[in-house]
Design brief:
Layout lengths: L6 H52 L5 H10 L14 E6 L4 E6 L2 E5 L10 E5 L8 E4 L7 E4 L3 E2 L7 E5 L4 E9 L2 E6 L2 E17 L4 E3 L2 E7 L2 E5 L4 E6 L8 E5 L2 E6 L7 E5 L2 E6 L6 E3 L4 E3 L3 E2 L6 E2 L3 E4 L4 E3 L6 E5 L5 E4 L2 E10 L12 E5 L2 E12 L10 E5 L2 E4 L14 E6 L5 E5 L2 E3 L3 E6 L4 E2 L2 E5 L2 E4 L3 E3 L2 E2 L2 E5 L2 E6 L8 E6 L6 E5 L2 E6 L8 E6 L5 E5 L3 E2 L22 E2 L6 E3 L7 E2 L6 E2 L14 E5 L5 E6 L5 H4 L7 E4 L5 E2 L3 E2 L8 E5 L6 E2 L5 E3 L4 E4 L9 E3 L3 E7 L5 E7 L2
Parallel strand pairs: 4-5, 5-7, 6-8, 7-9, 8-10, 9-11, 10-11, 11-12, 11-13, 12-14, 13-15, 14-16, 15-17, 16-18, 17-19, 18-20, 19-21, 22-24, 23-26, 24-27, 25-28, 26-28, 27-29, 28-30, 29-31, 30-32, 30-33, 31-34, 32-35, 33-36, 34-38, 35-39, 36-40, 37-41, 38-42, 39-43, 40-44, 42-45, 43-46, 44-47, ...
Antiparallel strand pairs: 1-2, 1-4, 2-3, 52-53, 54-55, 54-56, 62-65, 64-65
Helix pairs in contact: 1-2
Length: 741
């Protein structure tokens, strides 16, 4: 018979367990902490390697966002900047451009010196916190505003309103926003802003100032020194009557409109950049380069103003001018003296005309600047309609930060109308049209040169602009014109359902010898329903001697196919992009993401030569093919990441174009599932494996290759499976993950 524990024995056992726990738990805790610290240290070392390599070629990261992009390109996501050890922080040092592991302010590991000022050190957060560090907002941040006493970088978040409120002395406080309003009350700090802000309210900054390195649409300066750096742009800069202290403005970049006329404090202005328009108060002088247009008074527009007959600066802030009826415009400009119009809203079937075509009034040249305006029309928003004479030369039309809207349309992403115009230009010669930070929404033609006479030797400069409608350009009877399109979004929309309704984002219908410079744009297409002869495509070049130069990265997605024999292409929205209707003598320079040019006249086909891309080495990229074998996408990569692994999808393929692609960490091909296949064309090249990294094949997935020599070392089977190598068609090797018995 077994004897039970006595109370005394049980107490002794419990005491022994407690003693062991007291001894071992701290030991286990210490081991876990050391393991976490070791893991975090390894991550910091690896990420610093990427930062150092990028710095050697591109210089130091200016913002934490720049540093994060380098880290991501190295295969690390943002989670690696959150330490696993409790009480630890991984900080990015803006001065030395390196990461460090710290615990309660004490440096645990660093590759370099670490700044002693906490505001130069950045941490990642997903919520509002109180900290002396500068902060980077993760993708998990869900707020609409953030208040800090040091620097802020909103990361990939858009429209977050940022407030900097600090009395501390900071010599290099950095703020990066992506839209929204920024408020800065930092009387002892020097603040640098990057990227984009809708509005900047500068309550106070130190004597050596606020520095704009990005773009701000509206800046209101109450006190301090406001500097637009060489790469910076400010739309409207205002020193209001409520300014509380001396203000200086130093422009090295671009300011569209500087308004200091109401300021009662001391104002100094220095300009060595581009200052389009300045409205300055009595006794105020501009040192350095004069403004292109300078005024010392403001003419106030009213709801009853329908004509401008003299040059000047016209302010319509808060004013709406509506056309009396559908036979007249809301506003006419009837002078060839320089006219600047700010802040007004114009409404009508036809909103704004330079001249008066109904009464045959044309003055030959106009010089009009529109700033911060909203123009709402149902047919024509802005028009310059010359008679067919020899006198129609030398106009300048500038549009900055304006919304130009077709008010017939309610959903600009999916709808448009046909014979409607954002800017309509007739019979123009030697004219310059400049558009920056504008929106053209819902028009059949955002910008059209019509066939009432010819349009020759003119220049169109368009940057940072959003177009949503049937076409961005339609050039008719146009000769020897130059078009610059940069950093813009073009969403081509074709909703029409006639027997053949092909249309394009950019069209040249007639004329010749036109030149396009296309740089860093995003082209989208909306078409519903998609049918072979009712499409929206990219380019329709019907004239001879056209030159298209592509620079940087032009991304095109959606359905852009159009050709005589439409059965050659799948009729779906799977992301194919074609340059179509291209004349055989069209010159295409540079390179295009996801593009092919089809000549519909004759049998000529222009295929862009991937091997001649000027900025890409052959070792760094591969092609990606759709299920039916058609070209789908081009990818520039130097290493395989989890994102790259997602491109391995059932029935599709990639083809390597050179040696040099690296796999540094083993990656599961998670987009493939049991019973599915993928073709990997090595094309005679290889993938470099580091640290034994492999591509892991899920159970039941087959990877087919074009290699007649074993590449088994590149692959591994998922857990619970074994890798089987077999010889398939043409003695090319195949690899399968088979469940273990």
């Amino acid at each position: 018979m077994r004897r039970a524990f006595t109370i005394v024995e049980l107490v002794i056992v419990i005491a022994v367990i407690a003693i062991l726990a007291a001894v071992l738990i701290p030991t286990f805790t210490s081991l876990i902490q050391k393991a976490n610290q070791s893991n975090d240290t390894t991550n910091v070392k690896n990420m610093n390697t990427f930062l150092a390599a990028a710095e050697a070629t591109d210089g130091k990261a200016e913002t934490m966002y720049d540093a994060v992009q380098v880290i991501k390109e190295g295969g690390y996501d943002l989670s690696k900047l959150t330490p696993t050890g409790e009480g630890y922080d991984i900080v990015w040092d803006q001065e030395y451009n390196r990461l460090a592991l710290v615990n309660d302010g004490q440096v645990i590991f660093s590759d370099s010196k670490i700044s002693s000022e906490k505001w130069k050190l950045w941490i990642v957060t997903d919520e509002q916190i109180e900290t002396e560090y500068s902060v980077y907002l993760s993708d998990k941040f869900t707020g609409s505003e953030y208040t800090a006493t040091a620097g802020v970088d909103v990361g990939d978040n858009e429209g977050v309103n940022v407030t900097i409120d600090t009395d501390a002395t900071m010599t290099d406080l950095r703020v990066r926003t992506n839209g929204g309003t920024m408020t800065v009350d930092a009387p002892n700090a020097t603040v640098s802003h990057y990227e984009k802000a809708d509005t900047a309210n500068i309550t106070a900054v130190a004597g050596n100032s606020y520095h704009e390195y990005g773009t701000v649409d509206f800046a209101n300066i109450q006190k301090g020194n406001f500097v637009v750096e060489a790469q910076g742009t400010a739309g409207t800069v205002t020193i209001p009557a409520t300014a509380t202290g001396a203000v200086s403005v130093n422009n090295k970049g671009t300011i569209n409109l500087l308004n200091t006329v109401d300021a009662t404090v001391s104002v100094s202005i220095t300009n060595s950049g581009t200052l389009s328009t300045a409205v300055v108060g009595e006794g105020q002088q501009i040192e350095g380069t004069p403004a292109e247009n300078t005024y010392d008074e403001i003419v106030k527009l009213t709801a009853d103003t329908h004509e401008i007959t003299a040059g000047g600066y016209y302010d319509g802030t808060g004013v709406t001018i509506t056309a009396v009826d559908d036979t007249v415009r809301a506003l006419y400009v009837k002078t060839n003296e320089p006219v600047i119009i700010n802040g007004v809203t114009l409404k009508g079937k036809w909103a704004l005309e330079l001249g008066d075509s109904a009464n045959k009034l044309t003055l030959g040249d106009y010089h009009v600047v529109l700033i911060n305006c909203t123009i709402q029309a149902t047919e024509r928003a802005v028009e310059l309609r010359y008679s067919n004479t020899e006198d129609n030369k030398g106009s300048t039309i500038e549009i900055y930060n304006c919304n130009i809207e077709n008010t017939q349309i309610t959903d600009y992403d999916t709808n448009t109308s046909s014979r409607t115009y954002g800017v309509l230009l007739n019979n123009i010669d030697d004219t310059t049209v400049t558009i920056d930070r504008a929106q053209f929404l819902g028009f059949g033609y955002a910008l059209l040169t019509d066939n009432d006479g010819t349009s020759e030797n003119s220049t169109f400069k368009i940057t940072n602009t959003v177009f949503k409608g049937r076409a961005v350009f339609d050039l008719i009877a146009s000769y020897n014109n130059v078009v610059y399109l940069e950093n813009s979004l073009i969403r081509g929309i074709n909703i029409f359902t006639g027997p053949s309704e092909e249309f394009a984002d950019i069209v040249v219908e007639s004329g010749d010898n036109n030149v396009f410079h296309i740089k860093d744009n995003v082209f989208e297409s909306y078409r519903s329903p998609v049918t072979p002869n009712n499409n929206q495509f990219a380019f329709d070049i019907r004239t001879v001697g056209t030159t298209i130069n592509f620079y940087g990265s032009n991304t095109m997605t959606g359905y852009f196919m159009y050709a005589n024999d439409a059965t050659d292409f799948p009729a779906d929205s799977s992301g194919f992009c074609y340059l179509v209707d291209i004349q055989p003598d069209t010159v295409i320079n540079g390179w295009f993401t996801e593009a092919k040019a089809i000549c519909t006249q004759g049998s000529n086909e222009i295929v862009l030569d991937w091997n001649k891309m000027p900025s890409v080495e052959a070792k760094d990229y591969f092609y990606y093919y759709a299920v039916d074998g058609s070209f789908k996408q081009y990818h520039l990569i130097s290493y395989f990441s989890e994102a790259a692994a997602s491109w391995f999808m059932n029935g599709e393929a990639i083809t390597l174009q050179g040696d040099g692609i690296v796999i540094e960490n083993s990656i599961t091909l998670a987009a493939l599932h049991k019973g599915e296949t993928f073709l990997m064309n090595f094309n005679g090249y290889s993938i470099e494996q580091k640290n034994g990294a492999q591509l892991i094949i899920p159970e039941g997935v087959v990877i087919k290759t074009d290699s007649t020599t074993s590449v088994k070392q590149l692959f591994a089977a998922a857990s619970g499976c074994e890798l089987v190598e077999t010889a398939g068609a043409n003695d090319c090797f195949e690899y399968t993950a088979v469940a273990q018995a």
